[in-house]
Every structure is written in structure tokens, then in C-alpha cells.
């Protein structure tokens, strides 16, 4: 069967595509320009997936109604991952418009074509879940939680809102729009909806050609690279390295979650938090420094303040038990560990001559 993956040239989407191909699916990926199609087709061809398994469609402006009509024809499922993830928007609409209207546009095309489509998976985020205001006590967030606060703050502060808040608002509004559309059209469609909500995604990059420089990395992996693999640790203080905590998951595990979300019946109609657990940057620096030195120039790694991340009192915790139950992630299928993610990322960077 064939799966449509939007924004196939993105960090997570390329892994979603590769995982689908490895499991025998054919993949049709959307990109914004022909130049980008050429690059990603080359990457998949080198991995052994030629045009009979992997094809691309150019969709220049995902926010326009009808632009996905051709792309959705004849596919069995859709993985909608295309959405801006950067922290440099002046007007919050730079993020909100493509996030919300890109999602609605593909759902509308899927409604018109319906036919063979069985399921649509939308890549949401814990950004749509977590209300990050100063928590006095640790809080366990789950699928029942919505980040309405980011929407309110953006309404109130507009362009002056914090950059992360603008991104979080775009993800919350997009996911809400997806569920509203699905719920109001349920009677007329052949497919159901799943949303996946990962926290920070780290791990090796397969979407970039070998000539790329680190600046081509997306927001999450660029932060990891700067912090763990460069001497100035991304400009973070020792205190920030040890005490700013968040959730994370390996890119290959969130990619696998996208595939499992297609195959598990019980996933239909569900919102699923996908998280390996909490980290501090110091924890990742320690994990990287603990690796066997054989193939990697580990002496170049920064050290920070070893062990200092262990005593971080994490305030934001994620309950990933629903995904464990439905997808088997964290049960039959183990999540990658910090050591594995660090090793594979550093080997990727070393191959690229970045480290
Ligand atoms: P990337 O930046 O690597 O990929 C984003 C993809 O979306 C690219 O294909 C990009 O196309 C496309 N895209 C961005 N803006 C637009 C736009 N305005 N119109 C059309 N397409 C656009 O990001 P990630 O792989 O990290 O993120 C993928 C998804 O995962 C996003 O929905 C993101 O919100 C979500 N996510 C990411 C996390 C992370 O830590 N990385 C964590 C949680 C969720 P182009 O190359 O042309 O810009």
C-alpha cells in the first residue's frame, strides 16, 4: 500500500518515509519545490528506494484549498508532518497560518477524495499539550491536557509574544482544527484520525545531503548539536545545562510511532503522547562522554558539570502509557536510550565532518 507523507524533506518526515519503505510500503512525499524533490529523491535512491517505491509531488503552498487533491489520490493513508518549526517569526501568523490551514487543506482534500484512504496521522507536539507556566510542583501531563494558554498569550501579545509561545500556539491551533474537522465530518469519511504528540526529537539526520552544514539542521537537532557537540555548549550556562529539563524521544522512535499508528486499529480517533522521558542537557553531555571512544573523537566533547543533571527536579512529566498500550512503544518495542541516540547522532556528525 501507498502512504502520502507531507514535507518529506523534513527531519522527522524523512525517517517516517524510510521506516515506511523498510516495512514494505510505497511512499509519495510532498515538498515545496522541484529542487527539494531532487535532493530527497537522491537520498532515498542511495538508500535503495528508486522511483517505483518513492515518488514526490510538489505542493508549493500548503495553505491553499485544493492543492492536495491530486496528491491524496490512490493512497491508503496520510502522514501529515509539514508545519513550520522555527523560533524566528515576527507575526505569529507566519507559523499559525501554515500549521492550521496546511492541516485543514489536506483534510479537506482527503474528504473530497476519501476512497482508499483509511487513516490520517497528524504530527502534533507536546507543544499542544503542556501548559508551561511556572509549575509549583511536578505535573504529569497526558492526552487530556491542552495548551490553551499559548493561544491566549498570542491573542494578547501578538507579535510581542515569546517565540516558543508562538510556535506552541501554532501547534495547539492546528491540532484543535484537525480534531474539529474530523469530528464534524465523521459521517462522510472513510478514514479516521490519529495525532501524535512528541516532545523534543533528537537523533541522526537522514534528510540532509552529505554536503550540508550544521546550520541546515532543524530547530531541535541544531540545539542538540550546538549543546552536546560544540565546545561552547550552545552558549548555555552550567546552571541551565543542569536544571532546564524537558521531555525527549529519538527520531527513529517517533517515526516508528507514525507507522504503528497506521497499523494498530485501536489508534483510530486517539491522541497519543510519545515520550522516552525527561532529560537535562547535562544528561546528554554525560551520555555522550560515557561512550566507548573507539570510532569517535570524544576528547572534543564538552564536559559541562558531570552528574549535575541528575538532581534536576523535573516539573513537566509526560504520561506515555497510552502509546505503550496501543502502539507497544516502551513495551514490545524499546525506546532508544540517551546513549544510543548520542552515539548514532555523533557518528552521523563525524561522518559529515562536523565533529
Ligand atoms: P523540519 O523543519 O525538519 O521539517 C519541517 C517540514 O515542514 C519540512 O518539510 C518543511 O518544508 C515543511 N514546512 C515548514 N514550513 C512550511 C510551510 N510554511 N509550508 C509548507 N511546508 C512547510 O522539522 P521537524 O522534522 O523537526 O518537524 C516536523 C513536524 O514535527 C512539525 O509538525 C513539528 O511541529 C513537529 N514536531 C517536531 C519536534 C522536534 O523536536 N523536531 C517535536 C514535536 C513536534 P521546507 O523544507 O520546504 O521548509
TrEMBL record:
<keyword id="KW-0560">Oxidoreductase</keyword>
<dbReference type="GO" id="GO:0016616">
    <property type="term" value="F:oxidoreductase activity, acting on the CH-OH group of donors, NAD or NADP as acceptor"/>
</dbReference>
<dbReference type="Pfam" id="PF01370">
    <property type="entry name" value="Epimerase"/>
</dbReference>
<protein>
    <submittedName>
        <fullName>D-lactaldehyde dehydrogenase</fullName>
    </submittedName>
</protein>
<comment type="similarity">
    <text>Belongs to the NAD(P)-dependent epimerase/dehydratase family. Dihydroflavonol-4-reductase subfamily.</text>
</comment>
<dbReference type="InterPro" id="IPR001509">
    <property type="entry name" value="Epimerase_deHydtase"/>
</dbReference>
<feature type="domain" description="NAD-dependent epimerase/dehydratase">
    <location>
        <begin position="3"/>
        <end position="269"/>
    </location>
</feature>
<dbReference type="InterPro" id="IPR050425">
    <property type="entry name" value="NAD(P)_dehydrat-like"/>
</dbReference>
<dbReference type="InterPro" id="IPR036291">
    <property type="entry name" value="NAD(P)-bd_dom_sf"/>
</dbReference>
